[in-house]
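hey so i finally got around to running the thing on that chain from the lab meeting. sorry it took forever, my laptop kept dying and i had to restart like 3 times. anyway pasting the input first so we r on the same page abt which one it is
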Amino acid sequence: MIARVAFLVLLLAGAAAAGFLLLRSPGAAAGPEEERTAAFAGPRKCQACHLERHRRWVESAHSRAGASLTAEQIRKGVDFRGRACAECHVTGWKKPSGFRSGAETPELGNVGCEACHGPASEHIWVMTKAKVDGTEPADRKIGRSEDCSTCHNPHLSYRKLYGAKKD
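ok and heres what got predicted. didnt touch it at all, straight out
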């Protein structure tokens, strides 16, 4: 009897958590799927299902990319190609629901999952709904990794650009 009550409590808690995620995912409050717009959710939301990948990201330079910029570089800095430094050092620069500032959107202040895969709110919504419904989603609603050369130039190294080894 105690085991059955514990199981029911866990089941209800899981359903409540899934409902919370559905309601908290940016874009999820809209009506039918076609009307929602994907929004950036931040790496902690990805961590909920992708724990090992998140751990590897935390240990990578991408998780600290924004920390290498000053507030002035984020606002006005440009690289040798004339692009904003923040475009490659934070997630969602100048995009709706993307990084705005360290104070407003600290969860997007580095190169997170969504910098390459795109905004995750729709992926979170589709996967959570499938889990609640007990179904397999037809479309996982997440982009594939973009070309790394968008930010990383394979012909230039930090040493060639700045004459020193990067810390």
